[in-house]
Write a structure and sequence with these properties.
With about 400 residues, the protein is of the alpha/beta class. It folds into 2 domains: about 60 residues, no CATH class; about 280 residues, Aldolase class I (TIM Barrel), CATH 3.20.20.70. About 40% of the residues lie in helices and about 15% in strands. The strands form 3 sheets. Strands 1, 2, 3, 4, 5, 6, 7, 8, 9 and 12 form a 10-stranded parallel sheet that branches. It has a two-stranded antiparallel ribbon with strand order 10-11. The chain has a two-stranded antiparallel ribbon with strand order 13-14. Helix 10 links the parallel strand 7 and strand 8. The radius of gyration is 21 Å and the shape is globular. It starts with a helix and ends with a helix. Keywords: 2Fe-2S, 4Fe-4S, Biotin biosynthesis, Iron, Iron-sulfur, Metal-binding, S-adenosyl-L-methionine, Transferase. GO terms for molecular function: 2 iron, 2 sulfur cluster binding; 4 iron, 4 sulfur cluster binding; biotin synthase activity; metal ion binding. Its cofactor is [2Fe-2S] cluster; [4Fe-4S] cluster. Belongs to the radical SAM superfamily. Biotin synthase family.
Length: about 400
């Protein structure tokens, strides 16, 4: 009867009111609607907000899982092209020998994981990997170097600037993760054409010291600040399964959602425990944990790309489908994610076909005023963007 009455009610407020009554009054926290339902409606109506409290994010995270999944999907359909999923490739261009003590990382020189230190890859090898990635459907090419920072690495840094320029000419988005940056280095990367810079916060500020001691939380935030000021897209997320509590997962999302601007990209990683690291005995993350993180991230940061990142290899196709439904719209393809296993190329292509997913084209955002110029013709994308800017002046 309630549903039938709602069909004749002229004062409905979409989408929540129709489920409960015909009252035109706004819903309050005293209603039967979950926090996920209430905050999803606000995110759809108001867009991104930066004044989140930990309590409000925790209430979303703790909503009944099916409700959280549904409302994450609802926000996703209203703020994103919900069937589009970006395919990215992450290449380790400088592997192993890192001086840091990140407890999850097999590339740390402090742990015996079998990962050997290697020099920076040559331009020819990097470009060949980028070409293969593009042919396989990737529109973003990410380069990672196992460094604490880029200070004192002028020769290698200049080489990477050259790699960035060359890959952009291929019509691909380019992302780097090279450790901490100085302000000038961020500006140089921007001039070279870097699309995004990845620098994860990993976990909450409170739990962080139990995972890493060689770089502070504020060091990470300072790098994000330099990246943002340089006009580069910010890519920052974290890892679950480190032994943290749920409140730490909420704390991570709270820090990201209360930055002056939300990250354009939020990777959600599930720990792949590697033998030889301090976290080698951590139990695998369950799919419901990933869904809670992804759906909550989608509701509190509705415009961000939420990336289903490391650990995806452990999830079946139906489980990944739930992640996409909850709000994820990016994956990493290729045999490895830096040094850890990743999903098979053919399996990913089959998944796209079965689920009806659409590969997302590259998106070039320029500070001069060209926003959302999507590359439809590969190498001509940047010329079109420049032409659009010129015509708008």
């Amino acid at each position: 009867m309630l549903m039938r009455r709602s069909l004749h009610c002229s004062s409905l407020r979409w989408p929540l009111v129709r489920y409960f009554s015909c009252s035109p009054e706004p819903y309050s926290l005293n209603s039967k609607a979950s926090a996920a339902a209430i905050e999803a409606e606000r995110s759809i109506a108001e867009g991104p907000r930066n004044h989140w409290t930990k309590e409000s994010i925790n209430a979303i995270y703790d909503s009944p899982i099916l409700d959280l999944l549904f409302h994450g999907a609802q926000v996703h359909r209203h703020t994103q092209k919900f069937r589009e999923v970006q395919q990215c490739t992450l290449l380790s261009i400088k592997t192993g020998g890192c001086s840091e003590d990140c407890s999850y990382c097999p590339q740390s020189s402090r742990y015996n994981t079998g990962v050997k230190s290697q020099r920076l890859m040559s331009k020819d090898d990097v470009m060949e990997a980028a070409r293969k990635a593009k042919e396989a459907g990737s529109t973003r090419f990410c380069m990672g170097a196992a460094w604490r920072d880029t200070v004192g690495r002028k020769t290698n840094f200049n080489q990477i600037l050259d790699y960035v320029k060359a890959i952009r000419k291929m019509g691909m988005e380019v992302c780097c993760t090279l450790g901490m940056l100085e302000k000038q280095q961020a500006e140089e990367l921007k001039k070279a054409g870097l699309t995004a810079y990845n620098h994860n916060l990993d976990t909450s500020r409170e739990y962080y010291p139990k995972i890493i001691s060689t770089r502070s939380y504020d060091d990470r935030l300072k790098t994000l600040e330099y990246v943002r000021e340089a006009g580069i897209s910010v890519c920052s997320g974290g890892i679950i399964g480190l032994g943290e509590a749920e409140e730490d997962r909420v704390g991570l999302l709270h820090t990201l959602a209360t930055l002056p601007s939300h990250p354009e990209s939020v990777p959600i990683n599930a720990l792949l425990a590697v033998k030889g690291t301090p976290l080698q005995d951590q139990k695998p993350v369950e799919i419901w944990e990933m869904i809670r993180m992804i759906a909550t991230a989608r509701i509190v940061m509705p415009k961000a790309m939420v990336r289903l990142s490391a650990g995806r290899v452990r999830f079946s196709m139906p489980e990944q489908a739930l992640c996409f439904l909850a709000g994820a719209n990016s994956i990493f393809t290729g045999e490895k994610l830096l040094t850890t296993p990743n999903n098979d190329y053919d399996a990913d292509q089959l998944m796209f076909k079965i689920l009806g997913l659409i590969p997302k084209p590259p998106n070039f955002v320029d500070e001069s005023g060209c926003h959302g110029c999507q590359a439809q013709e590969g190498d001509h994308a940047e010329e079109k963007c420049e032409e659009a800017v010129a015509n708008s002046m």
